[in-house]
């Protein structure tokens, strides 16, 4: 008998699951239907700020595969503009509404993949639902914001929250010629870094002539005629023609939760290594799930395209009758903001404390190429290390061109639970156009090992 | 009683050993004398081709520390222009000649560090000792070649051998405005890569308008008035005003061997993890030693500044009464030639065969940034993998800007003996300015894992 797989959510996780299931099971054996409430399938959500900033000019270039391509190449029925509003586990059906059509119809499934992604965190403050305040999560947000800029030509932008997307949006607004303010509740933007490393990012933000207001919680939004007209903090009122939220994202689990699919302590849907939820026949993948953190050994919710693609692939392989497992995450992240490259992996100091590690840290300054080689740029590298064992717990990089991608060697070391005394002799690549003879990663490891030895 | 440490060779390995020994033992306890036959201490040998090509303009910028600085900062007596010509192990003394002074005097030692580096391989062919044929190994070679170019303004350069230094020298000559030919005995330049990857480098060489003659063994050199006037291969005669050798380097062990210090099968001086030779009180470090290869499990001779610095540091720590060990090498190397970035680590196919591994390989094409992101450049990545286990054995990268340094994540994976199925889910960094959502390293791992599964 032909089985039916229903996928809720048509971006990275959902469509990777669909594609990988299809590769192992032909259409006469498995029907695959994907419902996407937005207008696009399989797009790069991480590219949205660059599309808004006009660094990426073509919307289509962000889209890896359209519904028509899914149909033609893989016999996958991907329906955009279709929102799943209810899951009935007992009946094995989801209720689906076409955009603009309230009632909806029930669609049966044998297996279900929940890939509902994440939603931007919205502050619960007066005026926060006003027009002109944008979360930037799905590609429709990207087209909406870009259109708002093209049509209304706003001149004053305020970004609330200095996380990755907040900073990327601040830069995008700047690139579009606006006067930009960034309001951050914490002491520094980029709260995923330790404050000393975040301070370097803060300097870069200011250097780009973005007004940075740190330690200023927003109290409310002023609204004029339904539209936002200012962001108000405890210290000041910032007139705004357009506002972007950069407060991070949380798993979009309302649908799953209402349907009776268990939610974990991290706020994400509970899944095992194979991306099975505790409900037979129901899978989940991507930003809506919780992930195992390989260093803290705790469940975490991290919204990121790499995880979504990997988890979707794994769900699809398992649905298709194969075997694959997701081994967890390190919290690796990288971005380029205001000319500064920023990267991190593992635990920052406060996270290491929270996870119960006794730790120390070292920070070194080096260059991305041999100091004498033209184009050598500064790089600052921080390692957080377990004090008694010397085991690497986390790493942070702030630097200029060619700095950030070095986090991958550190992430690989972290993945393998290396100690810094083993790391310092690693055979990393060296030539003057690429690094000093002691690569910054080795310099930091050597420095950390010295700190470990001296702390005994 | 005050001990005396004599160091033979004043570059990376020798002076790192001296410095690290000094850090642990003060001058009243340990006298340190280093003899360097050349004119410089602690310089970047890898920077020489860039100095010749005028990419690096200041000679001084290549020098990390001068004899005066060693004296002032560390009470190390580093004597340039002093060549050690003989080692008498029984007497505990070395014979030292000042440059231009034949006889020499005997200098006693309690401990000896041999750090004599490497010498360029010279073809044993008629005319190979003529003037105008340069090996490029020590900084004096760099100043000599640069002076020869500045003064004689040669217009036709021939490079014999297409290894790292050969290619770098071909590019340097090109940058100095010469007509350049590269003669290579093998099918491709960059013989440290597999031929399919080397072919990409060959294209780049040709694109830079360097005449490439592959599979053309040199038969002899034409000499006019003592100076080289042409390089002759089996197929043609290439008129030459200047010739550089790029045939690689071998450990410079004549002094040690004559003194009775054991030489290994690789041609390098035998050392243990702590950089002790089999002779009590005699240490060796850097290009003159043999190294343990962590993948082939064999002794190899690899001349490279990173190893020299690490080995020197380790010898110095041990001489100083500390404890440190050198864990071996992977054969990681990187260069930038003719606009192409080239990197490798571990074993190439033929090396994997020689080492007794049953293996397969995959090659993937990807981009250095998200394909839609401005500045995305091509990257080609090859993995060599053990067939039955899926263990990574080696990796090669050829690409454009931002491609090569990704070898470090692969070197770290190799260091930890990872399998490609473990690697493909690693949490490497992703953002559109840095990589596609599946980083090329992950794409290659996924592809290799598929090949392993299908080969069963």
Detailed description of the structure:
By secondary structure, chain A is α/β, with parallel strands linked by helices. Chain A folds into three domains: 3-43 and 54-117 and 250-319, FAD/NAD(P)-binding domain (3-Layer(bba) Sandwich); 122-247, FAD/NAD(P)-binding domain, CATH 3.50.50.60; 339-454, FAD/NAD(P)-binding domain. The first copy, chain A, has twelve helices and 25 strands. The first copy, chain A, has helices at 12-24, 48-52, 67-74, 139-152, 164-175, 195-207, 254-259, 305-319, 349-354, 407-415, 420-423, 440-454; strands at residues 3-8, 30-36, 77-80, 82-88, 93-98, 105-108, 111-114, 118-120, 133-134, 156-160, 179-184, 211-214, 218-224, 227-233, 237-239, 242-245, 249-251, 282-284, 291-292, 299-300, 333-337, 340-346, 359-367, 378-386, 392-399. The first copy, chain A, has a five-stranded parallel beta sheet. In chain A, a hairpin with a 6-residue loop joins strand 5 and strand 6. In chain A, helix 1 (12-24) packs parallel to helix 8 (305-319). The longest helix of chain A has 15 residues, at 305-319. The N and C termini of chain A lie far apart (66 Å). The mean pLDDT of chain A is 96. The interface between A and B is large, with 64 and 64 residues.
How far apart the termini of chain A lie comes to: 66 Å
Question: In total, how many domains does the architecture of chain A comprise?
Answer: 3
* CA-based shape of chain A: globular
Say which CATH homologous superfamily of the largest domain in chain A is assigned: FAD/NAD(P)-binding domain
Low-confidence stretches of chain A: none
**The CATH topology of the largest domain in chain A:** FAD/NAD(P)-binding domain
């Amino acid at each position: 008998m032909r089985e039916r797989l229903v996928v809720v959510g048509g971006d990275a996780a959902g469509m990777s699951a669909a594609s990988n299931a299809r590769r192992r099971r032909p259409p006469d054996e498995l029907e695959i239907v994907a419902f996407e409430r937005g207008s696009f399938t399989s797009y790069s959500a991480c590219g949205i700020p660059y599309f808004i900033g006009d660094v990426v000019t073509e919307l289509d270039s962000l889209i890896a595969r359209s519904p028509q391509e899914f149909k033609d190449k893989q016999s996958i029925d991907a329906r955009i503009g279709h929102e799943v509003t209810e899951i009935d586990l007992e009946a094995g059906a989801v209720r689906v509404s076409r955009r603009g059509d309230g009632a909806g119809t029930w669609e049966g499934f044998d297996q279900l993949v929940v890939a509902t992604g994440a939603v931007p965190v919205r502050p619960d403050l007066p005026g926060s639902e006003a027009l002109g305040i944008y979360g930037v999560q799905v590609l429709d947000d990207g087209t909406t914001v870009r259109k708002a800029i093209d049509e209304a030509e706003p001149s004053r932008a305020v970004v609330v929250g200095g996380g990755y997307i907040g900073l990327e949006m601040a830069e995008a607004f700047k690139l579009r010629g606006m006067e930009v303010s960034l309001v951050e509740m914490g002491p520094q933007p980029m709260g995923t870094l330790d404050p000393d490393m975040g301070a370097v990012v803060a300097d870069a933000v200011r250097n780009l002539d973005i007004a940075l207001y740190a330690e200023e919680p927003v109290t409310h939004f002023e609204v004029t005629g339904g539209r936002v007209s200012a962001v108000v903090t405890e210290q000041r009122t910032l007139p705004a023609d357009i506002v972007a939220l950069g407060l991070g994202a949380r798993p979009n689990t309302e649908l799953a939760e209402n349907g009776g699919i268990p939610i974990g302590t991290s706020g994400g849907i509970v899944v095992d290594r194979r991306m099975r939820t505790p409900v037979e026949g129901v899978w989940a993948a991507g930003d809506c799930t919780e992930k195992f953190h390989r260093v803290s050994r705790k469940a975490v919710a991290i919204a990121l395209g790499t995880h979504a693609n990997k988890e979707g692939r794994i769900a699809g392989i398992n649905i298709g009758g194969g075997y694959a497992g997701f081994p967890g995450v390190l919290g690796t992240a990288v971005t380029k903001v205001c000319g500064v490259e920023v990267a991190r992996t593992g635990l920052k100091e406060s996270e290491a404390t929270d996870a119960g590690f006794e730790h120390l840290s070292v920070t070194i300054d080096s260059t991305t190429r041999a100091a004498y080689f033209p184009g050598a740029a500064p790089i600052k590298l921080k390692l957080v290390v377990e004090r008694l064992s010397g085991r690497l717990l986390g790493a942070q990089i702030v630097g200029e061109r060619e700095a950030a991608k070095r986090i991958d060697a550190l992430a690989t070391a972290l993945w393998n639970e290396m100690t810094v005394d083993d790391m310092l002799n690693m055979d990393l690549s060296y030539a003057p156009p690429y690094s000093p003879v002691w690569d910054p990663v080795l310099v930091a490891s050597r420095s950390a090992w010295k700190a470990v030895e001296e702390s005994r």
